[in-house]
Structure formats: structure tokens, C-alpha cells
Amino acid sequence: MIIDFHSHILPAIDHGCADSHESEKQLRIMCANKVELAVATPHFYPHIHRTSDYVNDVDESVKAIRARLGDNTLGISVAIGAEVLACETIDRMPDIDKLCIRGTKCLLLEMPACGEWERLQIEAVKNLIDNGYNVILAHIDRYMKRYEDKIDTLIAMGAMAQVNAESLVTHASRKKMMAYIDGGYVCALGSDLHGSEKSSYKAFARLERRVGTENFKRIMDRSKELLATAELVEL
């Protein structure tokens, strides 16, 4: 099974797909590349969103794409999650369970892209892990140059890592990403696809060749295990 663990495929919920038409195009690109299960991970920003409103908006977004497809389903399963921006109090945020991939304790966490990762942020992630959440660090490839030591600290605490396909076709970062993959620290691969240009999915389509069949199978098996209890929407 090929799983795209990080994608922005829901319509009009973030800056991924503007509407259900673009969402359908994006899903068709996935299907053409033999993806059987995609995790929809629209952005959640604690300083902007209220969890209850966000969940309602996500539900409406899912309804919109299902209404567009009608009976013409594409044959792809979708798990509904979120890409949650970490903050110092993320471990104490009400209804954090509702931001996990539905039906699981998996939380895709986006660390801040700029500034220092403060001690309290690190402690908040540790608290989530200690409380039984499967914390998956989104696109660690983006942070390697500046935060490699912090990533190592979080992984040592029990966090897992998701890698974006694009980093594995970029010579500058591929070597570091492969070290994490070979070490067994990567549990998920994702396209982080925004929009519906076919060219933007080429990196994901070439992943097995890039990481090697054994690594690819191991990561997909781990993703499948993490998503074993996920509530799936058939599109």
C-alpha cells in the first residue's frame, strides 16, 4: 500500500486547494500515482483557529468534495488529520484529541519555521508523548540545517519523523534525510502537495526508487500500522 501521509487535499480549508474542483484534480493525480491512502492534513494554527470551528470547517470541506464526486468515486481512502503548529502550550490545549488523525492518537506536529525552538516547546512535545500521543514531526527536512540537534532531542524523547518527498530528490538534503531513513526514525513520507500541478507530484512518484525498496516498504508498513484504527473517507 502506498500512503501519502501529508497532503492538503481538502477544498477551501487552507491554502492547499481553493475549491472542490481543484481538490478533485489533486486526488486524481494521487490516484494516477497509485496512492491508495492519503492523510488530509490542513493547517491548524493555535493563535488563529478555535478547535470546534476548525473541526466544523473540515467536516464541511469533506462534504464538499464528496458532493462533487457523487457516485463517481476515485478509489482512494482518505484519513482526516491536521498539520498542527506547535506552541508552548500545545500539550494543554483543549480538545487536542480532535486534531489527531481521526480514530488514532497520531498528531502531525509542525515545529516553528523561524526563531529558536524554546525549552517549553520541547517540553510540550515531550508531555504529549508521555500522555500517549504518537507525535509525528512534519517535514523534518525543512529544519535540518538549523535545528538538527533539536530534532535529535525530540526523536530521543519518542517523537517520530515525516519526510517530504521533495527533499529526497534535492541533492543538498538527501544525504541527511537518508541517514534518518536508514536509522529507522522516519515513519511516514508525504508529498505536502498544495495545488494540482502534475509536476509537483513527480518527487513522490519516484520515492521508492530514491529510498530503496526495503526502506520504502518499511516506512509504508509503519504508516499503515499507525493508521490501522483511522476513520477513513472513501473518495
Task: Note the topology.
Elements: E1 3-7, H1 20-32, E2 37-40, E3 43-44, H2 51-69, E4 77-80, E5 83-85, E6 106-110, H3 119-130, E7 134-137, H4 144-157, E8 160-164, H5 171-182, E9 186-190, H6 202-205, H7 207-211, H8 213-226, E10 232-234
Parallel strand pairs: 1-2, 2-4, 3-5, 5-6, 6-7, 7-8, 8-9
Antiparallel strand pairs: 4-10
Helix pairs in contact: 1-2, 3-4
Indicate the CATH architecture: Alpha-Beta Barrel
Mean pLDDT: 92
- Report the uncertain regions: none
**Tally of separate helices:** 8
Tally of DSSP β-strands? 10
Helix content: 25-40%
Counting structural domains, the number is 1
CATH C-level category: Alpha Beta
CATH level-four homologous superfamily name: Metal-dependent hydrolases
Strand composition percent? 15-25%
Query: What general outline do the C-alpha atoms trace?
Result: globular
How far is it from the N-terminal to the C-terminal residue, by CA? 16 Å
Q: What is the H/E string?
A: EHEEHEEEHEHEHEHHHE
Could you characterize the architecture of this molecule?
With about 240 residues, this protein is an alpha/beta fold. It has one domain (about 5-235): Metal-dependent hydrolases (TIM Barrel, Alpha-Beta Barrel), CATH 3.20.20.140. The protein is about 40% helix and about 15% strand. It contains 8 helices and 10 strands. Strands 3-5-6-7-8-9 form a 6-stranded parallel beta sheet.
